[in-house]
Amino acid sequence: MRRILPLLLLSAILLGACTPTVTLLTREPDTLPTAQAISKPLSATSTPSATPTRAPDLGASPSALKDVEVVVWHGWDGSSASLFVQMAAEFTLSNRWGVKVKVVPQRNLNLLAAEVDKSLPTPNHPDIVVALPEQLLGWKDALADLTPYMSHPDFGMDAKDFPAAFWEQSSVNDKRYGVPAARSARFVFYNVSFARDLGFDTAPQTPDEFRKQACAANGFWKQDKDLTNDGYGGLALDVTSNWQTPYSWLTVSGGQVFVDGEFHFDTPENIAALEYVSKLRQDGCAWLSTSTSNYEHFAARRALFITGNLSDIAEQKAAFTAVASTDQWSVLPFPGQKPGIVAYGPDYAVLKSSAARQLAAWLFIHWMLESENQARWARETGMLPVRTSSLDLLKSERSSNPQWSAALDLIPLSKTYPQTAQWGLASRVMADGFIAYFNSFPNTTLEGVLAVMDTTIKELNK
Q: Residue 72 belongs to a domain with what CATH number?
């Protein structure tokens, strides 16, 4: 299905294309609030302080958890997978309740979802799953509501210590199906040095300022006599399919794709929201490369802006090093009526089982989310910490990694995305539709692409 979607969309788009006028193309941030004072985290080796708050009945006592083993399935790879195994082993060896944690890796999140689906009718399902919020919502009948655990005076956590967009993604109809495990986001990468040479001393704060700088960068490449480079400069559009970029452009400008339980891409609001970046392309202030990535273009000043996520930061640094560039660069939110970034990433969820196994599972999750452990996770994986109180523990890392530090400063601008199990499918339609639009530009229209996307999602949901 994943390979078929782009072909279906592109074919439909090209078949329905009209013949517009052809335009030939060659080729900062808010400050994070001070970490809120929160209750002392529950350590695996410490004793929680007594509290007069009436505790929710979790159905089991921690004293009955000795030798209880919980199984965790995840879809991480690389260093994240290795770190998770290491931390699970540390918890097993150090926690005072005698809880044991067994980690079972899956190769990726899609295969994880398939394995969970197969396991649910059997007694061999995991106790904890680390999966995307939209995946969790597809299993919600099999998941424990984590609200009582969160509000427990001894074993709970302060919800205010989690950025709102991170915290809200897996909470639906007053039930909490998951808690944040890790978060990344899509950002605009910005070449500060190139902008200064163009006459801009500050990063763009509005869509008009973004457009002015993008078009000035394109103008820079038109100054010489080489006509083959006249399409460079400005915003280099994504060369790989992802939903985060188009959804970011859409949501910061007031668009919506999920209303009253249904997906609608082809609406006046969405057309208006996406016309901004479409007009950039039409006017030569955005361009599409035939390369496999935009790292080299950004480092060589062929683009003033590109988009990327946290894992792209290291690759982009390497590209600057490869061309011996000393340019300064940073990350920005997407410009719009309400500038922002769209946060995404997996959540921890507990599958229904016995009261003792669920409590044991929660204690491990709680330990993984302690501020010190979250700081460690962010430090070693390069992801965003999911607790505000972890930020004060990352000062030295922030000073040595200015782009990552800038990304952390944008956490308060994080936005959610549609809370539905159908988002996994709809997001692929959005990703493929958006890149198909620019690949076929100027032989199609934005309205036509959004209409095809509407038809496609309806057909796939039949």
A: 3.40.190.10
